[in-house]
Design goal:
192 residues; alpha+beta; three-stranded antiparallel sheet; 10 strands; 20% helix; 40% strand
Length: 192
């Protein structure tokens, strides 16, 4: 099987944060090139904050795409020239007003292999619980909650951010990050 060749990339919609690309692909089988569309935008960042007592922070904000308020982990997009780690620390401060004492990199993955050109960088941030109260940016509500409560929200469909649910799975698979999350009682067979 030969590797398809991209013969043309044409930006059909451009904005400060998103470009929609019309991509012409030659599959090398003698047929006419196929046309696909994808979105090119800055890489995403997701940060799962965890304190010593095994709690995490979720942020609630209005999302025009879903036309509703959603609960999510602190997240955002990578700024030009910024490392993924610096972006994770910045988003944690902006959305929850928290400083991490340690940051565990969970890896970088394709955000959506069918439609997006960007990647998502995932982190667990260890938080010293002696920090002052949460101080989110304007328009954002932040709340501490237990992991069993978070897993209940996921099961009930009240935590709709699929990419962030995948980040949580990465955290549970990562030996350095997993020790910070009290997950065994949260995902016991009777709780799923």
């Amino acid at each position: 099987m030969s590797i398809p060749k991209i013969i043309l990339d044409n930006i059909v919609v451009q904005s400060p944060l998103v470009n929609i690309i019309e991509r012409h692909v030659d599959f090398g089988d003698g047929s006419a090139p196929q046309i696909y569309h994808c979105m090119n935008q800055p890489d995403y960042i997701t940060v799962i904050p965890v304190d010593q007592s095994g709690h995490t922070v979720l942020v609630k904000q209005y999302r025009p795409a879903t036309r509703d308020y959603t609960w999510e982990f602190p997240a955002g997009t990578l700024e030009a020239g910024e490392s993924a780690e610096a972006s994770a620390m910045r988003e944690l401060v902006e959305e929850a007003g928290l400083q991490a004492s340690a940051l565990h990199n969970l890896g970088s993955f394709a955000a959506d292999t069918g439609r997006h050109c960007n990647r998502i960088h995932n982190f667990v941030a260890e938080i010293d619980s002696s920090q002052p109260a949460l101080r989110p940016e304007a328009g954002v509500e932040a709340r501490w909650l237990s992991f069993p409560a978070l897993f209940a929200m996921i099961r009930e469909g009240r935590f709709p951010a699929q990419l962030q649910i995948a980040a949580l799975m990465l955290a549970l698979m990562n030996p350095k990050a997993r020790h910070t999350i009290p997950w065994r009682e949260s995902v016991a067979p009777g709780n799923c």
